[in-house]
Design a protein that fits this description.
Strand order of the largest sheet: 14-13-12-11-7-10-9-8-15
Order of helices and strands: EHHEHEHEHEHEHEHEEEEEEEHHE
CATH topology of the largest domain: Dihydrodipicolinate Reductase, domain 2
CATH class of the largest domain: Alpha Beta
Helix content: 25-40%
Shape: globular
Bound molecules: nicotinamide-adenine-dinucleotide
Number of strands: 15
Structural class: alpha/beta
CATH superfamily of the largest domain: Dihydrodipicolinate Reductase, domain 2
Radius of gyration: 21 Å
Number of helices: 10
Largest sheet: 9 strands, mixed
CATH architecture of the largest domain: 2-Layer Sandwich
Number of domains: 2
Distance between the termini: 36 Å
Length: 344
């Protein structure tokens, strides 16, 4: 069976989606792009030309293009402020929806989208592509195996100094809203725990070239007394960490570190006498399912499997809202100067 797709929002990220579809035979065989929508018609025309999309309806209004195409699926790649209107329009047309992160611009909008998806009885999922990578899957596999015991803490460091220009340098809460959700979501996934509360100190450090919130230091309480700490800055010059963060996972028997690139180190207690026991390295096996490590392509494949089988996608809106709650909880905590409970 093939599915017809309208892609809404034809900017920078839309190219990543189309590249993922066109370079993955299972996806390009199953999905037919029948419509492109962007407020800027020229941008949509240029995208169609770049990706050789012929026989597509191009327009500036999603509703009109959906009426013309009778699409099964909407790919939502618009800016966050436009997301609520796009997703509700698509669901009201009986389409399944896959949205870029973040799933909404506020917790109220996110809850409303969950209600709309439940009412429409359609799949509503979110692109949380950075959990579909090899390193994150490897960490989860090791944690699940019990090799380092029950986990008690996850610590992540994220220190990079990108000079993006554009909207990011003007927006509020830039690190928490635009980037930290990837690490927050991965921590939730790797631990398998539920985030319960957060205390966050958010600053715009001296020398920052952003308007607001280029740095955040957050301490989360997860279920089963697991602690997750995040120390991040987007205005940190010098030798940077990985975009995936540098990780340390502490368990009752041992620890796992990942530099966010290629280096994994896992070990349990050694057998030395005296103050310290030393350590004994253990193996960190590769992910059990290689097909789950291709970022956007893997998220889209998971979304299609959900449509075909009816089982919930891994990043379904009603699960992803817990990662969104971590972001908005951290922002709220920083504003109030105290710990806040996470209600999702
Ligand atoms: N997952 C990732 O790694 C990742 C990376 C970058 C961006 N993103 C996300 O992708 C989304 C898009 O980001 P981008 O970098 O492509 O932005 P962009 O500004 O390059 O493109 C967004 C496009 O949406 C269009 N648009 C806005 N409102 C619209 C509406 N109501 N109807 C139709 N089109 C509309 C704009 O005209 C623009 O062309 C954002 O949510 C962003 O957070 C995700």
């Amino acid at each position: 069976m093939t599915y017809s797709v309208v892609l809404c929002g034809c900017g920078a990220m839309a190219k990543g989606w189309l590249r993922a579809v066109q370079s993955t035979p299972d996806l390009s065989d199953t999905l037919r792009i029948v419509g492109l929508v962007d407020l800027n018609d020229n941008v949509a025309q240029a995208l169609a030309a770049e990706f050789d999309l012929v026989d597509v309806v191009i327009g500036t209004d999603l509703q009109t293009v959906l009426e013309a195409t009778k699409a099964d699926i909407v790919f939502d790649v618009v800016i966050p402020a436009a997301r609520h209107a796009v997703v509700t329009t698509a669901l009201a047309h009986g389409c399944h929806v896959l949205s870029e992160k973040p799933m909404a611009n506020s917790m109220e909008e996110a809850s409303d989208l969950l209600r709309a998806a439940a009412k429409a009885q359609k799949i509503h999922s979110v692109v949380q592509n950075r959990r579909f990578i090899s390193g994150v899957r490897r960490m989860r596999r090791l944690v699940e195996s019990g090799a380092i015991g029950d986990i008690t803490a996850i610590h992540c460091d994220f220190f990079i100094g990108p000079h993006f220009g554009g909207f990011r340098e003007k927006m509020d809460n830039v690190l928490l809203l635009d980037m930290a959700i990837h690490t927050f979501d991965a921590a939730r996934y790797v631990s398998g725990k539920t985030p319960l509360s957060v205390y966050c100190l958010e600053t715009n450090p001296s020398g920052s070239w952003y308007a607001h919130g280029a740095s955040a230091n957050a301490v989360f309480r997860f279920s089963d007394d697991v602690v997750f700490t995040y120390r991040g800055s987007w205005c940190a010059e010098g030798e940077r960490t990985s975009w995936e963060s540098a990780w340390r996972i502490v368990g009752t028997k041992g620890m796992l570190t990942w530099d966010g690139e290629d280096v994994f180190k896992a070990s349990v207690a050694g057998h030395e006498d005296g103050l310290l026991r030393g350590f004994a390295p253990i193996e960190v096996p590769a992910p059990s399912r290689e097909e789950e490590t291709h970022g956007h392509a893997s998220v889209i494949a998971d979304f299609l499997t959900a449509i075909r089988t009816g089982r919930p996608p891994e990043t379904a809106g009603d699960d992803n809202i817990r990662s969104l709650a971590m972001v908005f909880g951290a922002i709220e905590s920083a504003r109030l100067g105290r710990s806040v409970e996470l209600a999702a």
